[in-house]
């Protein structure tokens, strides 16, 4: 049974303004960058997908539903049980194992994604990558499943083949400080070094109240060949791991925190906090102070070893205790909180904000800080660059609000371009396409209002697509 006649497609003018002059200008600018190679300097794709030449995506449910919290958080919000979507539990709760039933539930509720960036990405993936030409419904769910299953069985739909089709030039994964980087080693040995790069993520060895902190410290010590017994040896182990990541092609580190608060502790204070953690006596306030101190320390390390420092702030992680208990972290229950960048980053920026060796890329979930704090900070400190609209805001309107809020104060060249920040490999071209369309349309608006000229717009749209990210992440 095949797909029906084509009735589902994307508008070629999606993301463009309805005003004719701006739309025509946007089309012209977009045509200059539409087919440029993709730079993906920050994301969460599993490197093993690309390390194994024979890796496959699994079933359609494995591909589009089970690993994607953008998808199942929306379904959950309408009362669909997460376990009915096949998301693995960690408390023994039985979950659906029939992937056709999972797919059926998804298609029955596909309408929930109308008007959302997830809906736009999914539509692009299904129509452009997998040649699905019918909008998912209850009635055609199994026909589409069969169609996708047949496509996924073809050699041209392996991750390696799609990498080439998507035109990806470079992709950075996000890897725990305690990762042995086995997949990256395999790719490096095969000759893929420089195309897929690791990123150093030390959060799990910094958070003193993490239940796995002790085990993580033990693994960090083993991998770095350092016996971690105090603050000095802890720093030595972290610096050793950073050196290994850099040898493996890393260009950046990544740090997540609830707050951007930074403060410099004395070595004695830092050592005491660490020793409390070794004894199992660390308190929440100890962890917050230690994290604030370590952000300054990581800035020092970045100034010395050249790894670009990324800081993602403002997510109240795992807001739902029940979902966290049943399914673990990163299951869509992360909610934005207010942040104070100006006061919070002062200690770090006073130490390293003017250091020409240091580069700090900031991401926030608090949009109110774009024009009030982030743009002025990036518009002054040489070390500070603004990451693109993140997570809840990597949408058409989120991107427009971001550009409206920051460019006037920070200028375009203090931005870090775009990164897709995705676990869903097949959504990468769709996400970059939205950014390229939105930035082309935004620049077209500047042209028709006489704020920039055509020559500037041509240069700026290319910077948005590639140049800003290439320089910010030192990918040259």
Describe the structure using short key phrases.
476 residues, uronate isomerase, domain 2, chain A, 2 domains, four-stranded parallel sheet, 49% helix, globular
Protein described:
With 476 residues, this protein is of the alpha/beta class. It has 2 domains: 20-56 and 158-472, Metal-dependent hydrolases (TIM Barrel), CATH 3.20.20.140; 57-157, uronate isomerase, domain 2, chain A (Orthogonal Bundle). It is 49% helix and 8% strand. It has helices at 20-33, 48-51, 60-64, 69-77, 99-108, 117-129, 141-152, 159-166, 182-190, 203-206, 213-224, 231-247, 267-278, 284-305, 321-327, 341-344, 346-352, 369-378, 396-410, 428-448, 454-472; strands spanning 38-40, 168-172, 175-176, 196-197, 200-201, 252-257, 308-313, 315-316, 335-336, 360-364, 384-386. The strands form 4 sheets. A 4-stranded parallel β-sheet has the order 6-7-10-11, covered by helices on one side. Helix 18 (369-378) links the parallel strand 10 and strand 11. It is globular. The N and C termini lie far apart (49 Å). The mean pLDDT is 96.
């Amino acid at each position: 049974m095949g797909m029906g006649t084509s009735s589902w497609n994307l508008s070629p003018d999606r993301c463009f303004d309805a005003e004719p002059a701006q739309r025509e200008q946007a089309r012209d600018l977009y045509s200059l960058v539409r087919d440029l190679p993709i730079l993906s300097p920050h994301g969460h794709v599993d490197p093993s997908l690309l390390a194994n030449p024979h890796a496959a995506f699994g079933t359609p449910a494995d591909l589009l539903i089970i690993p994607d919290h953008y998808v199942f958080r929306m379904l959950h919000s309408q009362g669909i049980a997460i376990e009915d979507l096949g998301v693995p539990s960690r408390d023994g709760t039985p979950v659906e194992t029939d992937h056709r039933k999972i797919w059926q539930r998804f298609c029955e509720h596909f309408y929930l994604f109308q008007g959302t960036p997830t809906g736009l990405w999914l539509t692009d993936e299904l129509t452009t990558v997998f040649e699905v030409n019918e909008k998912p419904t209850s009635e055609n769910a199994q026909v589409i499943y069969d169609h996708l299953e047949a496509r996924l069985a073809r050699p041209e739909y392996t991750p390696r083949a799609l990498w080439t089709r998507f035109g990806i030039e470079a992709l950075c994964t996000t890897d725990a400080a305690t990762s042995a980087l086995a997949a990256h080693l395999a790719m490096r040995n095969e000759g893929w070094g420089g195309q897929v790069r690791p990123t150093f993520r030390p959060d799990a060895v910094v958070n003193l109240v993490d239940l796995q902190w002790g085990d993580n410290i033990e693994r960090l010590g083993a991998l770095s060949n350092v016996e971690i017994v105090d603050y000095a040896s802890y720093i030595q182990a972290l610096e050793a791991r950073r050196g290994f990541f850099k040898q493996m092609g890393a260009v950046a580190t990544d740090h997540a925190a609830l707050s951007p608060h930074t403060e410099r502790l004395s070595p004695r204070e830092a050592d005491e906090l660490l020793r409390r953690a070794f004894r199992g006596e660390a308190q929440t306030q100890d962890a917050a102070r230690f994290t604030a101190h370590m952000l300054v320390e990581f800035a020092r390390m970045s100034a010395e070893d050249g790894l670009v420092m990324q800081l993602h702030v403002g997510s109240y992680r795992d807001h739902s205790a029940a979902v966290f208990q049943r399914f673990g972290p990163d299951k869509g229950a992360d909610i934005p909180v207010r942040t104070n960048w100006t006061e919070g980053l002062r200690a770090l920026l006073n130490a390293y904000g003017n250091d020409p060796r240091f580069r700090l890329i900031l991401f926030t979930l608090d949009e109110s800080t774009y024009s009030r704090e982030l743009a002025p900070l990036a518009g002054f400190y040489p070390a500070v660059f603004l990451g693109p609209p993140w997570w809840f805001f990597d949408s058409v309107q989120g991107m427009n609000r971001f550009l409206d809020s920051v460019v006037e104060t920070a200028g375009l060249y203090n931005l870090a371009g775009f990164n897709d920040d995705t676990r869903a490999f097949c959504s990468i071209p769709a996400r970059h396409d939205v950014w390229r369309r939105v930035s082309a349309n935004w620049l077209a608006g500047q042209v028709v209002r006489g704020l920039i000229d055509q020559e500037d717009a041509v240069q700026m749209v290319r910077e948005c697509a590639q140049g800003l990210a290439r320089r910010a992440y030192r990918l040259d």
